[in-house]
Design brief:
Elements lengths: L16 E3 L4 H13 L4 E4 L14 E4 L6 E4 L2 E4 L5 H9 L3 E2 L12 H7 L6 H4 L2 H4 E8 L4 E4 L3 H12 L37 E9 L1 E2 L4 E8 L2 H12 L5 E5 L11 E8 L10 H12 L5 E3 L3 H9 L1 H9 L5 E4 L8 H15 L4 E5 L4 E7 L2 H13 L11 H4 L3 H20 L14
This protein binds flavin-adenine dinucleotide.
The site of flavin-adenine dinucleotide has 37 residues, from strand 2, helix 3 and strand 9.
Length: about 450
Amino acid sequence: MEYYSVDASGYSVKPRGVALPRSVGDVADVVRWAAQNRTPVTARGAGTGLAGGALGDGIILDTSRMDRVRYLDGVVSAGPGARLGAVARLLSGYGRILGPNPSVGPYCSVGGMVATNASGSLSLGYGSIIDNLESVTLVDGRGDVVELPSNRHYSDIISGICRRAGPFPDTTKNSCGYRLDAVPSPDMSHRVVAASEGTLGVVVGARLRTHPAPRRRALAVMRYADARSAAADCPRILECGPVSLEVVGPGIMEGYGGSCVLFAEFHDSVPERGGPDHADRVCGDVRRAAGVRPVMIREGIDRWLAGRNAALSRSLGMTGDRAPSIIEDATVPLERLPDLFDVIRELGERTGSTPVYYGHAGSGNIHVRTPADSRVTEWYLCEVMALGGTITGEHGDGMGRTGFVRRQYGEQNHMLFGLLKDAFDPHHILNPGKILPA
Ligand SMILES: Cc1cc2nc3c(=O)[nH]c(=O)nc-3n(C[C@H](O)[C@H](O)[C@H](O)COP(=O)(O)OP(=O)(O)OC[C@H]3O[C@@H](n4cnc5c(N)ncnc54)[C@H](O)[C@@H]3O)c2cc1C
């Protein structure tokens, strides 16, 4: 039971019981029993979530045994417990990749990725989960199996609610609340399940679009004296067509001392970048676009990116156990990224520390780690909203941010979130306290 009391966040909640279903029928049985007995059910994939979304005090539904994966005609069909590593291995045999690539690597599950609308460094080229989801099957709060978008009844309800939605942040990534902005018509209704954090249904299967694997890759590495000037270069570098544009703040990368480092990765499979002289052309483009001269890496790119991906574990070492610490994944419109770095500097002044930061600069999505109490966290999230951003671009609301969802979206959208929840989960047994208050 201890294992299920924690995930990769700093939270801890002891559940009453654990179920390990092997089939969709098993999931439906558990949810039906829970609905009759008004017992909370929280779905769990691999427990790598950083917002405490997979923790609950009722039944934890561990989907790890539902891990089948199949590939057909550019689409991968996976059970909720299938790990990203298994999906990637299958796809490599077909010369394909999945776009979303959380930095945690092979460990996270398809169910968890759908439920958080996960993304990662490659979202510039290939989008987040919401952009790649073809269809999804879930068990709703009554224990009924629902396939979206083909279920007409639910699709009409979803699109009716989405039509009434007020403004959403103008960001390329967003995992806050329910994505009412992503459903322009009933045939896109499945997209509302992305980022729903197991509160509308337990995902029991998903079909995800895949992409041709690149044959040639190139990585431009750029070193800046400070984050603001790195951020100011990002829009021009984006015009060169990278599939990823990452930032690592001072002190994290070995050998880079106090510099801020940008990594821009280019794939020849993105059509306008094809051809044998791929890296040379990229180098010329980036040199013209960036304020500093790039170093081009053609071999051993994954070794360089491993340095970037180790940023979280290194940042844990740098901030030590001066709890409580925050890992934020706020995302702002790209033109406001320099301002977000000003906010992060002020965060340091308010906490008397040096915040550690890194993330997906090209998407305006920055992870920050610093010791902070709830007042400072609230101040930071409000600053992000004031910049037109979202309080979470990829990790979800979970236990840490649910209390800010109403402020993020205002009364109208929050009321619509409640209507959607009621439609899927009338007894509010599915992951209560996430996205909406319990
Ligand atoms: C070192 C590190 C780096 C990371 N880097 C990234 C990154 O770059 N990008 C990114 O997006 N994330 C990142 N993450 C966060 C995490 O890996 C992702 O959120 C991932 O998608 C979670 O998958 P999981 O299987 O571990 O989900 P869990 O942690 O088990 O669950 C996460 C949420 O999904 C819900 N859920 C799980 N399975 C289901 C299901 N079958 N049906 C309905 N709801 C379900 C849970 O209830 C919970 O709300 C990182 C985490 C770590 C530890």
